[in-house]
Amino acid sequence: MNPTPLLFTLLLAGPLQAAPAPSPRAVYDFNPGWKLHVGDPPDAASAGVDDTRWKAVTLPHAWNEDEAFSKDITDLSTGVAWYRKHFTLPAGAAGKKIFLEFEGVRQGARIFVNGKPVGLHENGIMAFGLDISDAAVAGENLVAVRTDNAWDYRETSSGQRYQWSDKNFNANYGGIPKNVRLHVADRLYQTLPLFSNLGTTGVYIHAGEFDIAGHAATVGAESQVRNEYAQARTFAYEVTIRDRDGKRVASFAGQPHTIAAGATDTVTASARVTDLHFWSWGYGYLYDVSTTLKVDGRAVDEVTTRTGFRKTEFANGMIKLNERVMQVHGYAQRTSNEWPAVGMSVPPWLSDYSNRLMLDSNANLVRWMHVTPWKQDIESLDRIGLPQAMPAGDSEADVKDRRWEQRVAVMRDAIIYNRNSPSILFYETGNRGVSEAHMGVMKALRDQYDPHGGRAAGSREMLASQVAEYGGEMLYINKSARAPFWAMEYSRDEGARKYWDNLSAPFHQDGDGPQYKGQDASIYNRNQDSHAIEDVKRWYDYWRERPGTGTRVSSGGVNIIFSDSNTHHRGAENYRRSGEVDAMRIAKDGFFAHQVMWDGWVDIEQPRIHIIGHWNYAPATSKAITVVSSAARVALFLNGKPLGDGVQSERFLFTFDHVGWQAGTLRAVGYAADGKQLCESTLVTAGAPVALRLTKRTAPGGLRADGADLALLEVEVVDAAGRRNPVALDTVDFTLDGPAEWRGGIAQGADNFILSRRLPVEGGVNRVLVRSTTQAGKIVVRASAAGLAAATLELQSQPVKVDGGLGPVADGQPSYLGRGPTPPTPSFKVSRRAAEVASVTAGSNADSAAKSFDDDETTSWVSASGAGQAWIAYALKRPATLTEATFKLAGWRERSYPVRISVDGQEVYTGETPKGFGYVTLPLKPVSGRVVKVELVGTATEGDSLKLVEVANQAITDTGANRTSKSVLAIVEAEFYEAVR
Fold first, then answer.
1. Cβ-count burial of 199 within 10 angstroms (0-12 exposed, 13-18 middle, 19+ buried)?
2. Helix, strand, or coil (residue 439)
């Protein structure tokens, strides 16, 4: 790109509240009116083919959607499917530029217009564009798309498979499972951000020179402009910014620019803008930025880009958003983000609903896994204010030759297509570490196409990289004083929502069910109680090393996954149950546990409490009650009677042993250290089931009769007071009348009840999906179950205008602003201060002793074995009264070391180091001194190691224990701390 600078001038004429004029560019919804045929009939691209018997569908639509969650990912149907669409060009389109924008096709696609081939796209991930100006004709036209979603699909030009077409993680929803748009533009136009096929970069909006406190920034606009007239054209480039209410807040422009016939130029403009609302976590404030080309004062092209403005910083081991430190906590979510019997092809409102639940659990980061998400999910996170990490396309390791070129091409296309989305904070180069050279290639792409976006380029691992701007392992806690390190995946255990505990039907003990690759099933096949408890335990290690706890800190981590997924699975089901919500987005207890632990940017800001489980048991039942709370102390009450305080562990867990069940109210109260009540949670015994209850969720404007919109219906088993019975397992029969299609839900059983109109509730609740047809009207759903009063629900689908196969692009979903702007206050209180090391000596291998505190977790000091050799001594830069020592020790997951620590010769700690997922902190007797000596005083022990499952490459789990003798002391990193009062 060679931007042509313009003179920047503010246009202050005209009232700021003036409504925008109609755009000279037309964009149409191209989703309506397709025909689908699974197979490869001859001449399917020809207008002469009779497609009247083909299935009528509205996009987005995967042809194998019926199999979502009914089949193992490896068994999803593959092959060739054709999509055809007849459409009429709108009046006035003659002589203009006509483009098709596909948000994605799986896997390869050949596209024909009126029988003429117009394009080939094969990576199965990214959006692509096609110029069909010469193929389209006045009147009726035909678009035909031949799709092929074979797992082993090979690139036509090279014969190379795509590494991300992987049966482990990339659910194969075939055909056209994403949106399609038609663009009609003048022959002097701003290009589309679709590099594949078109080779164009579109519009880029960015901000800099931020004044966060003053709500101001310099906003820049950059448009690639192409002139396809036979003569040169002179035009003005004008920019208008409108807020979420449509009010014009700024306009600016430049001097006239002349572009030669057939040429492509990049033009820019910028201005200082005040009174800005900065995009933030849980504050999806977006602006519409219109960039207009004017010839002789008349607008000939206008593009409106929805974007937001925010400031980022990635340094000192920390992440800052709008100058506030944020320890990330969220989810590594499968990019398919799918639903039963629908796959990924859901309407925008349902994407917002699902993604908003992540935000509601207090997640502040989504790391999409392996492949770039579709535009709808990226824009959804823009609207709700949820930061995200955007990958390119990969499998599990660095690659070379054509496979690396394929990955680079996808990243290039993804950056160009999505660079105006404020929610993207990270570009992920690979699911595992890449070479320094490859990391440099990806950073160069970022610098070329998104130099002002404030996004860090990195990858999983990269712990010693001098190029990557962030990193972190997937299983263990990393810390850094340099680039931020956060865990890419953790807490990989699973638990079906149906299983409350081992005291509630169906009485699931941890480990029930088949083993996975011979591994102990108890560490992955959990019930809700133990799954939620494990979530808390795993997060504790990251929280303990948060910003404010020293110079080297953890920038957090993301839990795998948020919603149960039709991808890699273990146990009895053929889908993954690691989610904090199930496949229908019904919350498990882990959802509420995260809500408690994650309510803050770093430190807890809003104290919360949640009692794990329910309170409907058989008489004489005694149960250990676990409460998750951010309070300092938790007390439990049963029907008003105090049961005492809980035993605290992992900071957020409070346990009450042997609580005898009595019908009534179980109440947990959280208190501050000074005794002030902060929060409370209750469980109430529900009465016997008497009825069913149906409720609905639809788009804000109601159900659209477009053949693709969905209504989410919830059925509950309730008692006489309307309370859900949490142990009900009744089977419900549904009937559906009216212009709608049954898509159903999911439950444990044959084929997971996919598409069935008869399915059980689990824990007293379940959900189903109903899809609209293209006919508007009244839809009636009735639910019945033996012995319960039935429930009936009515929906009215609203007509959608389609003319000649083209529809209006629906107005965007509303933004969520619930968390408010970024607070101006610090996000954490400093709790301890690192005492810096000046020099080090050791009883052996002294030449490598400095590796034990070099802020590089890929290096370590390992002593020799034998008397008097397994010790190391650190001279501090100044005398300090130490209260804690933190270590990462080789074999941290499997091994405990017997150590003695002294300060200036005085013993301050002796004992065995605990096992952990990275760092362990040892309490020290507070003694002032300057030399800290750490000695091995016995032989390290192993056994009862912390378990990890479902890791295909076992080298990832290596902590060094298998390479290090038990008779040596091996330190990866050592840190020493003073308390801050």
1. exposed
2. helix
Which tokens sit at 899?
A: 């150590």
Per-residue pLDDT of 308-339, as tens digits, reads 999 999 999 999 999 999 999 999 999 999 99
Angle at which helix 528-544 crosses helix 589-597, to 10 degrees, equals: 20
Residue 517 burial (10 A CB sphere; 0-12, 13-18, 19+): exposed
| 693-698, Cβ contacts within 8 angstroms, sequence gap of 24 or more | 693/718, 693/722, 693/791, 694/781, 694/783, 694/791, 694/792, 694/793, 695/793, 696/793, 696/795, 697/353, 698/349, 698/795
C-alpha distance from residue 577 to each of 97, 270, 492, 569 (Å): 48, 49, 10, 7
Which tens digit of pLDDT belongs to each residue from 239-274?
999 999 999 999 999 889 999 999 999 999 999 999
**pLDDT given for residue 17 in this prediction:** 39
**Backbone dihedral region for residue 389 (phi beyond 0: left; psi -120 to 50: alpha; all else: beta):** beta
Give the span between the Cα atoms of 269 and 257, in whole angstroms: 12
Residue 347 phi/psi, 5-degree rounding, is: -70, 160
- Strands (E) across 105-187 are located at 108-113, 116-121, 128-131, 140-148, 175-176, 180-185
Q: Please state, rounded to an integer, the average pLDDT across all residues of the chain.
A: 95
Token output for 190: 């701003």
Rounded CA gap, 234 and 212, in Å?
Answer: 38
Confidence (pLDDT) at 568: 83
Residue 355, helix vs strand vs coil: helix
**Shortest CA distance to 23 belongs to which of 245, 250, 240?**
240
821-844 burial: b if 16+ Cβ within 10 Å, else e: bbeeeebbeeebbbbebeebebbb
Q: Once rounded to an integer, what is the mean pLDDT over residues 457-480? A: 96
Q: Distance between CA atoms of 462 and 566, rounded to whole angstroms?
A: 30
If you write DSSP's letter for every residue of 842-871 in order, what string do you get? ESS-GGGGGGGGSS-TT--EEPPPSTTTSE
Is pLDDT at 18 greater than 80 in this prediction?
Answer: no
Q: What is the pLDDT of residues 683-714, one digit of tens each?
A: 999 999 999 999 999 999 999 999 999 999 99
Q: What are the residues facing 958 on neighbouring strands?
A: none
Tell whether omega for the bond before 60 is within 30 degrees of 0, i.e. cis: yes
- Dmax (CA) of the chain: 93
Q: What does DSSP assign to residue 532?
A: H
Q: How far apart are CA 634 and CA 911, in angstroms?
A: 30
Nearest residue to 226 via CA among 202, 243, 255, 206: 202
Q: Is it the case that residue 871 has pLDDT exceeding 60?
A: yes
> Which of 7 and 500 is assigned the larger pLDDT?
500
- State the DSSP code for 563: B
Ranges assigned E (strand) in 149-254: 175-176, 180-185, 188-190, 203-211, 216-227, 233-242, 248-253
| Residue bearing tokens 């991930």 | 125
